[in-house]
C-alpha cells in the first residue's frame, strides 16, 4: 500500500481497501503532468472493475502513467476522493444511487460528465422460478408471497446506494415482515443461482449493467413509486485540483464515454476469461474510439 500515505492507511483500515499495482513499468509521464502516478478507485462490482481497468490501461499504455487501482466500498471512495487520496472514480451512480455519498462530499469532487447511461437499480427475480403474479413491489405484501420468500430481500454490501434505497423502499411500500439481508455482489449472484437450482422464487437487489443479465433470465420488479430510483447515469469524478495536476489525463477522461453494451461486453468476457484480457480485446477492436479519447480526433465509426 505504498504511496497512499498516513491518511490513506486510516481509510484502508476502515474500508478493507485493496491496492492493485499495474503490471510493468510505465514510460515517462506527459511533460505537463505534476507526476506520472494516478490512483483510480473502483467498487467490488463487475461494471466498476470493467471501467476502472479500461481507463487504467488506456492511461498506462497511451499516456505513460503508472496507475494504481484502489478497491473499496463507495462511501469510502467518495471520502478518499474528497481528501485527495484517490484521483479518479468512474462509477458515480446519479441521480439516485449515490446521492447521499455525493451530498456528503459536496464541492470537494469534480464531475467530468457521463461515462454511460441507461443504467438501473432495483429488485430482480429469476423469471423461471418466480410466479408471474409477483410482477411489482406491491405484490410482495401478499402473505403467501411473503411466506414463499421467507420474508427476505437478498441484498449486497450494506453501505451501497442500492441498499440504502432498498431500506427506503421497505418503508415506502409498507413491507412489514420483510428483512433486508446484506451480502455482496457475489452473494447476490449466488442467491439467484441457488433459487434457480432449487426451483424457488427470490427477490434480490441488483443494478444493470451486470453479467447476471447475460447469464440468467431475470426481470426487475415494477417500482411504481420509484422508491429505488429512476433511470441512472454513471458519471466520472475526480479530486479537486486534478485538472491542474493532470491536464492531459483530464482531457482523456472527459472524452471517455461508452455505450452500455460495451460495458456489458467487457463484463461478459472478463467473467469468461479475465478482465485484463477483456479490456485488451476491447481496446484492440475499437481503435477509433481509443484515438478519439487520447487525441480528440474523430475518425471512422467504431464498434458500438
UniProtKB/TrEMBL annotation:
Could you name the domain of life of the organism this protein comes from?
Bacteria
Q: Which residues form the signal peptide?
A: 1-28
Keywords, A to Z, come to:
Signal
The record ties this protein, via SUPFAM superfamilies, to: Periplasmic binding protein-like II
For this protein, the record's InterPro entries field holds: ABC_Gly_betaine_transp_sub-bd
The keyword Hydrolase is assigned to this record: no
Ranges for domain ABC-type glycine betaine transport system substrate-binding come to 37-269
Q: Name one GO molecular function term.
A: transmembrane transporter activity
Would you name any one GO CC term?
A: ATP-binding cassette (ABC) transporter complex
Q: Please give the name of this protein.
A: Glycine betaine/proline transport system substrate-binding protein
Species this chain originates from:
Limimonas halophila
Native organism taxonomy:
Bacteria, Pseudomonadati, Pseudomonadota, Alphaproteobacteria, Rhodospirillales
